Amino acid sequence: MSVGIQRLRDDAAAIRAGAVAKGEDPERVDEALAVDVRRRETSGEADNLRAERKQVSERMGAAIKAGASPGSSDVATLRDHSTQLGERIAALDAVVHEAQSALDDLLLLIPNPPDADVPVGDASASVIVRTWGDPRPHADTAGVIVQPHWEIAEALGIIDLAAGAKVAGSGFPIYLGAGAALQRSLIDLFLDLHTREHGFTEVWPPAVVNSASARGTGQIPDKEDQMYVVTRDDLFLVPTAEVPVTNIHRDEIIEAAALPIRYVAYSPCFRREAGAAGKATRGILRVHQFDKVEMVCFERPDASGDTLEWLVGRAEVALQRLGLAYRVKLMATGDVGFTQAKKYDLEVWAPGVEDWLEVSSVSNFRDYQARRMNIRWRPEAGGKPEVLHTLNGSGLALARTVAAILEVYQEPDRSIRVPDALRPRLGERIPAA
RNA sequence: GGAGAGGUCGCAUAGAGGCCUAGUGCGGCGGUUUGCUAAACCGCUGAGUGGGGUAACCUGCUCCGGGGGUUCGAAUCCCCCCCUCUCCGCCA
Fold first, then answer.
1. How far apart are CA A199 and CA A196, in angstroms?
2. Which end of chain A is more exposed for a tag (fewer CB within 10 A), N or C?
3. Spatial distance between the Cα atoms of A359 and A322, rounded to a whole number of angstroms
4. How much of chain A is in helix, strand and coil states, percent to nearest 5?
């Protein structure tokens, strides 16, 4: 239900090659094809028996209505025949169900083949396609060292990691004063940018989803351990707004005139990040709860390639407005996720930690997610529905963006100069404590 | 949370064990008529999954919120769950 069985039958070689490129086992493809054959044959056999039983039942009903006693031997013969057929059908159905669920499981293990223009290889094969702005050096000419954001934030009193740890746990930062206002302003800036200038429709989604939705976007069964679960009510805290927003159209057929559909949504994002700790996670670089503005697109299949490039551009505009230097990375086959056909990461330069921080990931899923969620469109009025394409991208994720802002905009007097785009909301500076 | 009423083809509605191959109306599409529009009339009008055919098309089966059960046979009877509405309770 992810890579379609039809495509698998038609184009097994390409699916196999795609799995190899992503470092996954291509054996699943052949297993799935074998199970598919068994399912179809058994199902056809059961269908024929069903047709036969229907006729027998009808004859029996007709006989009784014509005056035959329900207990007569003619009727009894028909009844026995029908019962016998029913037993055989039940046995075949069991095989079909078993094959179907085996097939569903196998299909979930077959990755979305990467696009032809995705570089082949592991993470080292990923390509920086462009860089914008000048990465500020870690130390200026006078030798003044840029501090990492956790030191800046602590000195300013705008992020309290210890209080968050007390209240909720490690990795749940509390933003205070100008820090809280900075969060709010960034969300506002991004939503305004994408709705007013880029034409997205704003969505304010639930922060929890049910298991059907988590399955739809692929969090279950693949990344189940990454989510916080409310077992009592069978709900999951959203790891990204992608989950509730993409599921809006689950099991729907969308008329051609309604496409493209482009949503932008803010949501808190909850991730367990089990086992993560160390240099790359200090401060607010990797936390259990962060905030993100997410763009989600439903597109005609022939447009999704262009839309991916456009989406990357929309996320870039957000970074440019903030004046943050960044680079755009085209991810290699081994670095593209299981469900994505093509993916770009946007990384912002953070001089305090001397690293490029991922603040946006923009992906084209082509028909992979949509098939899983059964989202289709109708190319022509009255025509057959077809699976459409979905894409999404962050625009942007807050925590790391905040880290970069603090490290880039810190002044010699330790205050923070507010980026121009945020001044109408925040004023000119966050004063040193 | 408690009590009641419901969930049937895009929408509305009929259907109460075999005559359902799910009827009818609206909407939509095509046609006839027409100076144009409208009206009238005629026809078509869901999804899934198999089989046959180069194809248009033909054809089997499944689907009446979801899942189980009863029966020779279930939209229809029984059980569980989900959702919607009304009233009550609680509450930002």
1. 6
2. C
3. 13
4. 45, 20, 30
Residue A313 CB neighbour total at 10 angstroms: 13
On whether ipTM exceeds 0.95, the answer is no
Measured distance CA(A398)–CA(A406) in Å, rounded: 12
Distance CA(A3)–CA(A110), nearest Å, equals 7
Beta A127-132 vs A326-330: how paired, if at all? antiparallel
Nucleotide minimizing C1' to CA distance for residue A84: B72
Identify the residue whose Cα has the smallest distance to the C1' of B17. Answer: A61
Q: Can you tell me whether residue A290 is helix, strand or coil?
A: strand
Q: Which residues contact A402 (CB under 8 A, 6 or more apart)?
A: A149, A179, A182, A183, A186, A284
Residue entry with tokens 């009894």: A76
pLDDT tens for each residue of A208-243: 998 889 888 888 777 888 999 988 888 899 999 999
Q: What Å value separates CA A245 and C1' B92?
A: 25
Cross-strand bridge partners of residue A298:
A261, A390
A423 vs A114, A182, A325, A426, CA distance in Å?
42, 10, 19, 5
| Beta-bridge mates of residue A416 | A410, A430
Is strand B in 7 Å reach of the CB of A1?
Answer: no
Strand B–CB A91 distance below 7 A: no
Nearest to A154, CA basis, from A408, A354, A414, A350? A414
pTM value surpassing 0.90: yes
DSSP state string for A137-163: PSB-TT-PBPPPHHHHHHHHT-EEHHH
Is residue A64's beta carbon less than 7 angstroms from any atom in nucleic acid strand B?
A: yes
Q: Each residue of A141-198: pLDDT tens digit?
A: 888 889 999 999 999 999 999 999 999 999 999 999 999 999 999 999 999 999 999 9
Q: Which nucleotides of B are covered by protein (CB under 7 A)?
A: 18, 28-29, 45, 47-51, 60-62, 72-73
Q: What 3-state class would DSSP assign to A65? A: helix
Q: What are the φ and ψ backbone dihedral angles of A85, each rounded to 5 degrees? A: -60, -45
Query: In chain A, how many H helices and how many E strands?
Result: 13, 18
Bridge partners of A264, per DSSP, are A202, A295
A180-192 core/surface letters (b: 16 or more CB in 10 A; e: else): ebbbebbbebbbe
What is the distance in angstroms measured between the alpha-carbon CA of A281 and the sugar C1' of B82? 41
Nearest in space to A95 (alpha carbons), one of A103, A84, A105: A103
